[in-house]
Design goal:
By secondary structure, the protein is an alpha/beta fold. The chain has 3 domains: 9-88, no CATH class; 116-303, Dna Topoisomerase Vi A Subunit, Chain: A, domain 2 (3-Layer(aba) Sandwich); 342-573, Rossmann fold (3-Layer(aba) Sandwich). The chain contains 18 helices and 26 strands.
């Protein structure tokens, strides 16, 4: 597909957030309580407007309204109400008249006078006079040392100009080596007007590099306007760019990396080949290769350029053979749960634990932490709602099976000493960034393999510049990368939306929360009947490891003395074996307060 914008579900959520709209989900449709165009008409009709969450198309079913379109339409129609897309999208679709804001040059079609100092300088860089004149490289009238590069678009109009100080010496010369005219000029690719066909386009980082490619006899050579990190040119040249059958990236060689290659490979919808590092023959760019090895070496580098397969794409035949049944797993202590998810949690997984407020998901989470410690894993825990001392009291009670004497507490402390670490949430910091920073330290320096984040909303430091759903999506995406990148298990506690639905869409927030997860576990009360007060169900609503789901739920019982959750009809697992039985004092029912969750 050659469309510039590809629909993202988070943009639908951002539209909803910008309007403060009330919505509900039905299959692939986000249904708005009120149509933002007609507001329901005279009869105040409801639920007539919806956005398809797969395509981004929308429509209002009221015949007298009939509004329809896509996310771009919404961005144009509701810009004044705060709904915007990234600036490059605004420019491409001219949302808010972005294209009309570009500055223009007088006599933009006038031929450029090529001055001799430019010709002589470029000859010294291996560029023949014919190429210098074809690309109209000149110098400033009042300074022979300032090269001028006019950027003509496909219609021959100069829309951008770049300057280069040929006498610049790093660390000695004041000012910049390269610069552009001040103002909002339209950034495009240098050399567009000189291209002869739409077969292969060679893109370099520097202007002299693209001239070097042209000097080697290559028809279509262009370069980016503002270096390897600037891609503001993309929306301005997109329709021209996608006419080419392929792109060859001839960026600067930095170590074993070729600049521009990653970014262009990601956004160009057709074939992209990258000049191989070996083809540079020890040189850093196309111009140095031209000067040291000649035009043939430049042409050969382009001919030998290869499709660069991302390192994360592997030939299936070369993938290491691993017995799935022998992949390390970490039992949760709930036997039926472990059986369903492949004996327990596995490295690289993001696990979502959800359940209604007050029904015990945090209790289950801390119990799983205790079990992970018994499994031999080091743990790092974030509890946004519990102070560290309360979290410790909970887990002590679970480890000691309710009999928390001083001796038992000391034994519990020894059980998790240097095996369980907790985030200090008493300090006032930007928690979302701090959590990831400390999580990385806990993994790399303390050897933690199991991470508990309880819960999503308290872990996020909301920022006004982004809407809630995008922040949630970014946060969960980052958790997923940490789990896979560091090869650890991360359990995230997330609240569900209000209501009785227990599907994955019912989890409050961005759809990416469950989309990114390997496993989704729901903990909920069995019923509201008094006799079921301590009975609950553990449901498995997503399971990428084995594919086994359990919507009916695994029956479990909450034991208040020990704050432990165990499978109905099965004994409670002992987490800590004490050598001296006297360290456990019997506890009576009267000594316990209300269930703490």
């Amino acid at each position: 597909m050659n469309e510039y914008y590809q629909f993202r579900t988070e943009d639908a959520y951002r539209f909803k957030s910008a309007l403060g709209a009330k919505t509900r989900t039905n299959g692939d449709e986000m249904i708005f309580k009120v149509c933002p165009y007609c507001v329901g008409g005279a009869n105040r009709d409801r639920d007539t407007f919806s956005i398809n969450m797969k395509t981004g198309q929308f429509e209002c079913k009221r015949s007298s309204c009939g509004a329809r379109g896509n996310i771009i339409t919404l961005a144009k129609d509701f810009r004044d109400r705060g709904f915007t897309l990234p600036k490059d999208v605004d420019i491409y679709y001219n949302i808010g008249g972005q294209k009309d804001k570009f500055l223009k040059y007088r006599d933009a079609h006038k031929a450029v006078t090529v001055r001799d100092p430019a010709v002589e300088y470029l000859k010294g860089r291996g560029i023949p006079e014919e190429i210098t004149k074809r690309y109209e490289i000149t110098t400033k009238p009042d300074n022979d040392n300032i090269l001028v590069f006019p950027f003509r678009d496909e219609n021959g109009e100069v829309v951008f100009v770049k300057y280069r100080n040929t006498k610049f010496i790093q660390g000695e010369t004041k000012g910049n080596k390269e610069w552009t005219d001040k103002g909002n000029f339209k950034k495009i690719l240098f050399g567009m007007y000189q291209c002869k066909n739409f077969e292969t386009l060679v893109i370099t980082e520097g202007q002299i590099d693209s001239l070097s490619v042209a000097a080697a006899g290559v028809d279509n050579a262009v370069s980016v306007p503002t270096g390897k990190n600037g891609f503001t040119w993309k929306p301005n040249v997109w329709n021209w760019l996608v006419k080419f059958n392929e792109i060859v990236v001839f960026g600067d060689k930095e170590g074993d990396e070729i600049t521009l290659s990653k970014e262009i490979s990601q956004f160009f919808p057709k074939k992209v080949r990258i000049v191989k590092p070996s083809s540079y023959q020890g040189c850093k760019d196309a111009n140095e290769l031209l000067q040291k090895c000649g035009a043939d070496a430049v042409r050969k580098a382009i001919d030998d350029a290869e499709v660069q397969v991302n390192l994360r794409i592997k030939n299936l035949a070369e993938v290491e053979n691993i017995d799935i049944d022998r992949i390390p797993y970490y039992a949760t202590g709930i036997e039926s749960l472990d059986d369903a998810i492949g004996h327990g949690f596995h490295d690289g997984e993001l696990v979502i634990l959800t359940g209604k407020c007050g029904e015990g998901k945090s209790t289950l989470a801390s119990q799983i932490v205790a079990k992970m410690i018994k499994n031999g894993l080091k743990c790092f825990c974030y509890s946004g709602e519990l102070p560290a001392h309360t979290f410790k009291a909970w887990i002590d009670k679970q480890i000691c099976e309710g009999a928390v004497t001083e001796a038992a507490r000391n034994a519990a402390s020894a059980f998790y000493d240097k095996k369980c670490y907790i985030y200090d949430n008493s300090s006032v910091v930007d928690e979302s960034e701090e959590i990831f920073n400390l999580m990385a330290q806990a993994i790399k320096f303390l050897g933690c393999k199991f991470i508990l984040i309880d819960n999503l909303m308290t872990a996020m430091e909301l920022k006004g510049s982004e809407d809630l759903f995008r922040q949630q999506s970014n946060f969960v995406t980052k958790l997923t990368k940490y789990a896979k990148g560091f090869n650890v298990v991360i359990m995230l506690v997330a609240h569900p939306k209000k209501g009785d639905s227990d599907d994955n869409d019912s989890i409050s927030g961005s759809g990416d929360i469950t989309n990114r997860a390997n496993t989704v576990i729901r903990y909920q009360r069995k019923s509201k009947k008094p006799e079921d007060d301590r009975k609950s169900l553990i449901k498995i609503t997503k399971n990428r490891t084995t594919g086994k789901l359990n919507w009916e739920g695994i029956p479990v019982v909450y034991e208040p003395k020990s704050m432990r959750i165990y499978e109905e009809g099965k004994p409670i697992e002992t987490l800590l074996e004490l050598k001296d039985a006297d360290t456990f004092n019997p506890v009576t029912e009267d000594e316990f307060a209300e269930i703490p969750f």
